[in-house]
Structures are given as C-alpha cells and as structure tokens.
Amino acid sequence: MTTTPQAPLGTTYGPTATPRDVLGDLRLEGKIAIVTGGYAGVGLETTRALASAGATVVVPARSPEKARAALAGIAGVEVDDLDLSVPTSVAAFARRFLDSARPLAMLVNNAGVGFIPLTRDARGFESQLATNHLGHFQLTLQLWPALIRAQGARVVALSSRGHVRSGVDFDDPHFHRRPYDKWLAYGQSKTANALFALGLDARGRAHGIRAFSVHPGAVITDLVRSMSEEEVRAAVARSNTQSPLKSAEQGAATTVWCAVSPDLAGMGGVYCEDCDIAAAVSGDAPGVTGVRPWAMDRAAAERLWTLSEAWCGVTAPPTCTKDA
C-alpha cells in the first residue's frame, strides 16, 4: 500500500475556512467521535461542528463539571472523566468506552498543555511530552478495538507550527541532563504528535484506520495561561506579522476536514494545515507554513513508537502491524 505524498491537494478552503464550510451537507448520524479537550477553544468548536452534523461526540475531560458547563445546550454530547497525564485514568476511560461496544469512527487527540515550567508526571517524564504525546499514544492503542470496529476510522493528532522549534531529542527527551526550555519542550511534543500520526497510519491503514496531524493555525487559547503577559503580547505581535490570527472556529476547520472530508479518502500519515495537506519544506525554510523534515521522518517515527510503547507499557495489538 503506497504512502500519501506530503504535498498540497489544492483544496479551495484556505485559512479563513470554518468547520461549516468543510462539512457542507455532510451528515454524520450514527458516527461516534471522541474529542479530548473538546470543551474549550479549538476542541469546543470541533465538538460543536461534529455534533451539529449529527455525530455523537464523547468529550473526556480532566474536569467533567467544567466540561458539562461549557457544552450545555449542544445536543449529542457525552462527557466522561480523563486525565491524560495519569496512565490509570487513560486505561479506565478506554475500558469504559470499549465496554459500550460502540465503533469509534473519529478520534481527535486535541487536548494538550503548553509552555509550562518544568514538571514531571509520576513516572518522571517531562509533562508536555507526557500529556501531549504519551497520553494520547496510550489512549489510541487502548481504543484500538473500537477503531477497528468502525471499519474506516480516522485519528487526528493536534500538532502545531511549534514543531518548527524542535525535533524529538532521543538522547534526552525528558530533560534529565539538558537545561529545560519550555519552548523546546513544547516544540518536541508537537513534533511527536506528527510522528505519531505517521507511525499510526503505517500500522492502521491495512485495517481502514487512517491518521493525520494538524496545525490549526495561530489561535489564542488556554495554552497561553502559563505564559506571561509580555510573552503573550510578543506572540500576538509575531503572529500578526507572519499570518493573521484565527478564531477558535477557524482553527477547528482543519481538524474537522481531516476527520470527515472525502478529499482525504484513501490517504493518511500527513501533516495538514489550512484544510489541505501542508507542503514539505526544508528545516531552515522562511515563513510559517509547511512541515519540517524532522516531523515527517519515518525512521524517527519508528524510533519514537518503540520508545513510546516502552514508556507507556502498552503495545500495538496483533492486528496493528506496520506495513513492510
């Protein structure tokens, strides 16, 4: 089975598209989606869009009460408990969903943390990599039977333009020796998200499961809560000189496009932005668009996959084998 080229398709949506533009007349009745962090920012708009098209959307949240308040009035939404930084919480949520025997057509790994001071989870792992990548890695593998059951599932991993800042440092991914840098740690986690989609798609496509990574665009969300006012002002000013800020609704458009669009039928394993497959660019390319080489390196994706299995204590099921 051939891989999908990391090259734009030439869609007509563009950076100002909304989920409504992407969905058009498409209906999703009978489809089940899980959107982690689907109660704030881009995640909330993703939940709203999928539910508006008739999908049942499960929103697992670290604070279910907060999620229920944010999602009040949106039909077709279920809220459950999940803390991506706690492996037992991830396993418990996955088990509850599997016990429902429902097929999972769309898994949107949207939740994340960013730009936080050095913290570690109970395993000693750096928290941005542990939450943004490893929590979702474990969740996806433990939901694998439900994805198989859908007979044509899509997994969307929220990456970011932040991947430009850093590849995965395989020598010291958890900052045990090198000085901690919150920007590099965030960039590493976003590269990991892209590599995860690459590795997952290679394993899942023979079973109808396709994976994509997404840059939603420059959106001011709760991720900035750990940044100083000066850092936020600088980020906004920098974005305004490079590309316009997007609303949360516009930021959700590429996620929804990857989750449902017929444009991507038979495709996967690619990094997407502005409702299209992003161009592959060099590591020192100017500008803010495109995906850098270290985020689409298949050897790095395999190395990260092997490490992630060991770190999480989970392995790909027997039916989840990488294509040769």
Features:
324 residues; alpha/beta; Rossmann fold
Structure description:
- The chain is α/β, with parallel strands linked by helices.
- It has one domain: Rossmann fold (3-Layer(aba) Sandwich).
- Helices cover 38% and strands 11% of the residues.
- The chain has eleven helices and eight strands.
- It has helices at 19-23, 41-52, 64-71, 87-99, 127-142, 144-149, 182-204, 229-242, 248-251, 253-260, 298-312; strands at residues 32-35, 56-61, 77-81, 106-109, 154-158, 210-215, 270-273, 276-277.
- An eight-stranded mixed β-sheet has the order 3-2-1-4-5-6-7-8, sandwiched between helices.
- Helix 4 (87-99) runs parallel beside helix 5 and helix 5 (127-142) packs parallel to helix 7 (182-204).
- The longest helix has 23 residues, at 182-204.
- The chain is globular, with a radius of gyration of 18 Å.
- The mean pLDDT is 93.
Low-confidence spans: pLDDT under 50, at least 5 residues?
Answer: none
The number of domains: 1
Distance between the termini: 9 Å
How do the strands line up in the largest sheet? Answer: 3-2-1-4-5-6-7-8
The secondary-structure element order is: HEHEHEHEHHEHEHHHEEH
Helix content: 25-40%
Q: Structural class, please?
A: alpha/beta
- The percent range for strand residues is 5-15%
The CATH topology annotation reads as Rossmann fold
Tell me which CATH architecture applies here: 3-Layer(aba) Sandwich
- Overall, the morphology is globular
CATH class descriptor: Alpha Beta
Q: Give me the Rg, rounded.
A: 18 Å
**Fourth-level CATH superfamily:** NAD(P)-binding Rossmann-like Domain
DSSP, total strands: 8
Major pleated sheet: 8 strands, mixed
Total number of helices: 11
Average pLDDT confidence is: 93
